[in-house]
Write a structure and sequence with these properties.
Strand order of the largest sheet: 1-2
Number of strands: 2
Largest sheet: 2 strands, antiparallel
Distance between the termini: 70 Å
Shape: elongated
Helix content: 40-55%
Number of domains: 2
Length: 147
């Protein structure tokens, strides 16, 4: 074996290691909540193919969610921060949708109770915050609003 072949084998081996540990590297790069678990699955079960696929999917999954939470049909139970973020957003959106659908008045939290409320008040479909009529962008989250 000459020096050129040895260099090719070393480069090939390093490339194979990078591909093999790609799920773990993605998890660490994204600072995934379960990065060490993903690394362990990748290390121990990666060669099975199924373990590699599980580790890869979990690495690109939402950062604070366990993959088993999806199977249990509750992707927010893993961490209080994730639950507050997702359920808080969902509650705001549901209240805004119900008010827009039914024409009922929304019970506002104390910090919003001082804001004047008009009959034609609109709500952002993304964050659920009140918007003024004719706005092209939500002032809270910046999403474009069709109008």
């Amino acid at each position: 074996m000459n020096d050129g072949e040895i260099v090719l084998w070393v480069i090939g081996g390093l490339l194979a290691l990078v591909v093999y540990f790609l799920p773990a590297m993605i998890a660490f790069w994204r600072e995934h909540h379960y990065k060490w678990v993903i690394f362990a699955i990748n290390l121990v079960f990666g060669l099975t193919g199924v373990g590699y696929l599980v580790a890869f999917i979990w690495a690109v999954w939402p950062q604070q969610t366990a993959i088993l939470d999806f199977i249990a049909n509750d992707p927010t139970t893993n961490s209080p921060e994730a639950g507050q973020k997702i359920y808080g957003q969902m509650g705001t959106n549901v209240r805004a949708f119900n008010e827009a659908r039914d024409g009922r008045s929304l019970v506002l939290p104390p910090q919003m109770a001082t804001a004047p409320q008009t009959q034609a008040e609109l709500f952002c479909f993304n964050c659920g915050k009140p918007m003024r009529s004719g706005a092209h962008f939500c002032a809270s989250c910046g999403v474009a609003v069709s109008g």
